[in-house]
Each structure stands twice: as C-alpha cells, then as structure tokens.
Design brief:
Strand order of the largest sheet: 3-2-4-1-10-9-11
Helix content: 25-40%
Strand content: 15-25%
Distance between the termini: 35 Å
Shape: globular
CATH superfamily of the largest domain: Aminohydrolase, N-terminal nucleophile (Ntn) domain
Largest sheet: 7 strands, antiparallel
Number of strands: 23
Radius of gyration: 23 Å
C-alpha cells in the first residue's frame, strides 16, 4: 500500500515501482488510482503488479497524485471486485482507498449500511470503510475520515485519495505499519514499509502515529490526531516474517532483529551439528545469527525457485503432495552425511515443515534439527494475517514433542517470547502478540471470535 503527491512527477510509474518493492505484502491483486483534472482514474487487476500493469495501462494513468495497493486477502474472496484501491463518491467528490489490516466490527457495520440502502460490489471489510466515509455528512473529507475512525474497530492503515488531497491514516493501536517519506526534496510519498522508498529515490521521514491522519496537498503536509492513542501495538510478526528485512519499525532494523533472534535461539536451544542452514528467504537472517553464536558453519542447503508465486493455475493432487519441493531444492553436496540445523521463522499449519524434513533427509542429511525463530502460534489473528482457524494451527493441537515427531525431526525448539522481544529491543507492551499469548489488544466480538476458536 502506497501513495504519492507530486504535481511534477509521473506518479503512476512511481506507484508501480513502489508496489513492486512491496510485492511481498500481497500477490493476489494490484491497483493504482490517480488524481487529475477529471477527478480520479483507477486500474486494478488480479495477480502480481507486473502482470496487472503494462506501459499502456500506466500511460493512461496521468495525474498529480496517486495511491497503489497489492492485495493479500484476509477477508473476502480473491475476485476483481475486491482488488484495491476501492472507489466511492463522497459529497465533496470522489475518493479512492487502500487498506491494510482487518476490522473486527465489519459485519455489524456492513449490516447497518445495507439497511440504509448502501449496495456492495465485493465482500471485503475495506469496502465497508470506503462506504462509511462516503456516507458521512461532513463536507470536509478529513472530518469525514475522522468521524469514520470513531465507528470502525480493528487494524487499519489506510491511504485515501481525493482529487486534491492524499491522506495517510493509522488505527489508534498502530497494528499495521505506515511510513511517510520525501521524494524530489519537496514532494511526499507514503508506504506500508520504508524499504519501498529506496526503490524510487525517496527518503524516510517518520512513521504515521497511531490514531493520526496525515494530509498531503499543494500546501504541504498537515497532521491531525483524529482519535486518541490507545496503545502502540504493532504486529510482532512484522518483525518475524511479514516485513522485508531492509525495513524499519519503531526505528529498529528488521534484518538485525531477525539476526538477533537467531543469536538468542542458539543460546536457548543449542544443537550438536555440522552445518546451519536458513530456509529461504525469511529464515536466512536468523540462520546466520544462529551460526554466529553456535560457531557451527553457516551454509546454503536450500535453493529457492525465485519464480514461484501464488498462481491461478490449480495444482493437481500430485503437485499438492510435492508441495515444498516446488519452491525449494536441496543442495545434496552440502547436506550429504551431515548433521543439519535448519532455521526458519515460524510454523503455522506444519504442512511445509512436514515436507521439508524428509526433503533434507532424502538429500542425505544424517540428522535434522529444526529451530524456529519465534514462539509457537497457538491462537488465530483477527487483525490482518490469514493464519486460519485455531483448529488448523499445529501448535494449538500438539505439544512441541508431538510436533517434532509429526515433522520427523531429530529435535525441535522454538524461540521463547521473552527472547523474541529481547531480540527486537522494544517493550513487549508495544506489540500485538495475540497469536502467541491470547492477549488481544482490540476486543474481539464474541460472534467473530468463535468463528476461529473452535478448540474452545
């Protein structure tokens, strides 16, 4: 998710390359909206940004400001109507919106809007937000967005475009990241992660504060604390897995945090082995960190197929069974006859790891010691990570010894929550850790909670 205000630049092209840098945050759909003298123009499609946009599509999107979005579906099916940005008509004019996160009261709000005759084209909570803003009676769009923030609950980082303004909005808990940068010394860029700025020659300024609306227009940047800060509670898995390693959150390097996770994992859970390997790509920094402290040599043991992304071509049963082998290939010469420590960021369902251990053993590994650079995920996420129902989380159904046996590993250890927080270097109270400890910072309505808590 990103935005730019620059009357002098080719804003759609800047948006494309910014989305390209943020492609890891979603591969199911992409879109760009631009503001110009005619109002707003939008182009969306299913798939990767590089598949959705070509020279012709970008050339048709001319304007002085733009927002872009890559979709990772957590609510609503993967169909074109759910691709963002989403558009609506406010009394002040057209608006386009991109959303990262999940609302916990979307069902209730959707029913209220439907009862008032509002029609929906798609099935996402993001459409609920844009329709709520459009329905607000306030003449000023910033006031309408501020009033909408009083209605919605959950995780939301937003970029909103009007014909004359760009807005960056963050929920009062700050669950999902959102950055502001400068480009061309005088214009502004907004992005989910600051790693995107380098791709287009921009410089990071600061993060949008929880509960803040940042407005960018021809007079510059303006800030409004629209709703009070509840508490800072960024998703801890942004550090573990979601964010790109060259990003920063709370002023901390994601890469260095992952490397320290490996350092502390080696102290907490040593192994007698010959080589340490990291699972590409997010397990590599922690693998390097593990090797640093354990003094076991780090080596490449798995090669990732760089062209594997989400696909609309459904695999047959044999391809599904091969699973991880489509994405990872073992280096037999690096593994044969050796005791291997394999480090990864997390285990969710356990499906991939159950295939990974035999893959390494088939390649000749004598022992496979699995080390995970985060604690067991025992609880579902309601704030924007599609972690599935609790019944599907392997750590909710099995003990660590049972998971080890299920995977076929020689040994299995997870990083403790205490060490995870220490590795990042920020107080645990500044994180949402609900998937690890069942402490949800934003209250989950009971009817929504039971949809994913079928173990209880």
């Amino acid at each position: 998710m990103c935005g730019i205000y620059s009357p002098e630049m080719d804003v759609s092209r800047v948006m494309f390359f910014t989305l390209y840098a943020l492609q890891h945050r979603g591969q199911e759909g992409a879109g760009i909206s631009v503001a110009n003298e005619q109002g707003l123009q939008t182009h969306t499609g299913l798939g990767l940004a590089a598949n959705v946009f070509d020279e012709e599509a970008l050339g048709a999107l001319r304007g002085h400001a733009a927002i872009g979005h890559v979709r990772y579906s957590t609510t609503g099916s993967n169909m074109l109507q759910n691709a963002q940005p989403l558009c609506a008509e406010h009394s002040s004019g057209p608006i386009a919106l991109g959303h990262n996160g999940n609302l916990v009261n979307a069902v209730e709000l959707r029913e209220q809007l439907a009862a008032c005759g509002v029609q929906f084209a798609g099935t996402t909570d993001s459409e609920v937000i844009v329709k709520l803003i459009a329905a607000r009676p306030e003449d000023d769009i910033v006031e309408a967005v501020a009033a909408t923030m009083e209605q919605i609950r959950g995780a939301y980082s937003l970029v909103i475009l009007t014909p004359d303004r760009l807005l960056a909005v963050r929920d009062p808990w700050g669950v999902r990241p959102l950055w502001i940068g400068r480009i061309n010394a005088k214009d502004y860029l907004v992005a989910s992660e600051d790693c995107a700025f380098a791709a287009v020659g921009a410089t990071a300024l600061r993060e949008v504060e929880p509960g803040e609306i940042v407005t960018i227009d021809r007079d510059g940047m303006h800030s409004l604390q629209a709703v009070p800060l509840q508490r800072k509670a960024v998703c801890i898995f942004e550090f573990v897995y979601i964010a790109r390693p060259d990003s920063h959150i709370y002023g901390r390097s994601v890469y260095m945090a992952r490397r320290r996770m490996g350092n502390l994992l080696a102290q907490q859970a040593p192994a007698d082995a010959d080589v340490v390997i990291g699972v590409p790509l997010t397990g590599i920094p922690a693998g390097i960190g593990y090797a640093e402290v354990s003094k076991i040599p780090y080596g490449e043991g798995l090669i990732q197929n760089r062209y594997i992304f989400r696909t609309f071509i459904q695999p047959d049963q044999r391809m599904r069974e091969l699973g991880v082998r489509m994405k990872l290939s073992p280096l037999r010469e690096a593994l044969r006859g050796r005791r291997v420590v394999v480090v990864d960021d997390s285990i969710v369902r356990g499906t991939s790891k159950r295939q990974l251990v035999p893959l390494l053993k088939d390649a000749g590994a004598r022992e496979v010691h699995v080390r995970i650079a985060s604690p067991p995920q025992r609880y579902p996420c309601f704030y924007g990570v599609d972690t599935c129902d609790r019944s599907q989380l392997i750590a909710a159904r099995m003990s660590v010894p049972e998971i080890r046996e299920h995977l076929g590993a020689t040994s299995l250890e997870y990083l403790s929550l205490r060490n995870l927080v220490e590795a990042i270097g920020v107080s645990r109270e500044h994180f949402c850790r609900a998937c690890l400890d069942n402490r949800y910072p934003i209250e989950i309505p009971q009817d929504i909670r039971i949809t994913k808590f079928d173990l209880e």
